[in-house]
Here is the input.
Amino acid sequence: MLIALCVLCCGALWADNINIIPRPASVETLPGTFAFNTATTIAYKGEGAKEAAQMLCEKIRTSKGFAPRKGKALAKGSVSFINDKNVKGAEAYTLEVTEEKVVARASTAAGLYYAMQSLVQLFPSAIENRHATMMVGNWLLPCVRIKDEPRFGYRGVMLDPCRHFFPASVIKREIERLAAYKINRLHWHLTDDQGWRIEIKKYPRLTEIGSRRVNEDGTVEEGYYTQEEIRDVVAFAKKHHVEIVPELEIPGHELAAISAYPELSCKQQPTSVRRIWGVEDIVMCPGRERMFGFLNDVIDEMVQLFPGTYYHIGGDESPRTEWAACDSCKQRMKEQGYDKEAQLQSYIIGRVSKHLAEKGKRVIGWDEILEGGNLDTTAVVMSWRGEDGGIAAAKAGHPVLMTSAGHGFYFDYYQSDQVLEPTAFGAYFPIDRVYNYDPIPAALRGTGREHLVMGVQANCWSEYMHTTQILEYRLWPRALALAETAWTALDRKDYNDFVRRLDGDGTERLALLGYNYHMPLPEQPGGSCNKLAFVDSTSVMLKALRDLKIIYTTDGTNPTLQNGEVYTAPIKLNRTTVLKTATVLPSGIISPVRTINAVKTEYSAPRLSADAPTAPGLLMKKFDGRFAAPADLEGRTPVFADSLLKDLDGLRSLTELSRNLRDVKNYAAIAEGYIEIPETGIYEFSTLNAALWLDRSLLIDNSSDHYQRHTHENAQIALQKGRHAIKVCFIGGIFDGWPNYWHETKVEYRTPGGEWKKVTPEMLSH
Ligand code: ACM
Ligand code: ZN
Here is the structure.
């Protein structure tokens, strides 16, 4: 009975008007409200208290046009920040709001900062407004008693400015908001094959050459952080209690450095900054002392910039083929008594770790640093290839960080229907996967090794984040789920309550601050399509993630709260319609509009009679060169025509592809003929080729897409049974790091909502 009562009252203690993300360890609501107004004073006492108080004042000044006066600690009508040694825990705090006053206590500056961030979230979201409106009346804060501390000490996000560069101002902007949700580590991935981003004074070519990538189409991706900028970012992060973990990748993912200093590699041949994504086989040579001298020099400059304890040294995806063929590497193996190249990997990690240890630093590496054995147990292992690396590392006594790609922590993956998002890396990881993950893997629970899990991190690899807008779209709001997974005790997590806070107050704040966060759009169950075809009538079924409210119009206007119909059942259409639809958050914020064109049509008749003689396959023409769109091919003379193409996937195989696609001779190809349609019906087509025509009309055009890696242009058509004209255009090239030769040039089809099928050679004729 007693237990039942307690459960009941604990549930009731979390009130609907408490919106703090991440959810605190303990929240007790009290009756009444505290009235914050121009008479409210702010007081502070002890280390770190003034800084927290000033940040709150600054927020009030920006949103309400006045700075609260300094008052006496604990006075009536005051907000007090007090350094109190009785509050145990490096990041713990208490926060008490009564009708009389507000008191935040912690024994550290970090704790006071977190108390301030929680308090900001007790204010109305308007405190985030950056265009001051003068304060009149009161802001009412709910009375509450909060005791809070984190579950994990390491709560991280990784940003990758190597594939696409983000200026220091963007790094600071993301740090500021991440810190508001109590994320306390920014893993800054500063070196990679596609760009070296940190100024090293002793090696100027690293930035002169290594920070500049010339893409195949002639565009340039460049940029680096000067040491001055880095000091500024580090100081800014420190103010927000974020430690920067810099990453210097070794021994792989270093082609940008090798292009500046080829002597770092086994073959020592001139090369250039890698312009495609993926894994590079030219890596650093562990046979050469000069290479270690270089790494030591770089680290010696880095330790002047990054005062934090942890240094990330990469270790992932480093092929060993060059080592196997290198005399210096063979010599090193002989001298060390090694019989496997993998031991060279641990040799490098060991030597660099030792140099860092001499500087008082500890290393973090991707889970491959376990390979080759002999890893010092102080090394922290970052488990990214699932959980196995983390489990093995903890069993061997290493601290571990969980950042599994397969569990939702690669924020370069899709978070909703991919047809409706800018191209991402590929897999689908919506926010609930991030939220519902427990960073302590099941295999470690009850083993006495749980304490070795230091925390959790999400990674924003930037191959598919070519603008700051897209970076933010992928990071927000998934970072809020990450924050709660990292901070909040398991028994305090509750996805439904998180959604309430996220879709209400949480997104209101992101919107007021101008962050480009992802809002789910209305999706069609079974896969979205923006180009529908129907003969008599059709119905469009919609659903949004988190069951958000959906509105729509059918008159071509953008839906608003006033003119939009609220979606309650599949939308019946019996004429050609432009269907515009959007989701609505509980706050009233409307998502971007999704436009679906639904065309009423007739079943298109076959273009060739059933008894006309044909031969298998399509006829193909090839054009040499690098083209952007099918229109570029008009009027050009092909290098050959009327070549037989049996299988559509053969479209991409007309050039020699070296492993790294250096000097690839690009081409475009057009294949034409007939496709056999098995039954009269509505068909949806999909392809990654530049364009697809059916019965001479352009059905799919991917050519304006930045990457053309996943199509957003699936389209439906009504076809009678029989042979219809088909034309496919493939345009080969490297589209911002993605070579089109890497994906299948197939065409797929399905009946709406059904399973996708590949167009087979048997269906093609000419
Ligand atoms: C990684 O994603 N290669 C760590
Ligand atoms: Zn070598």
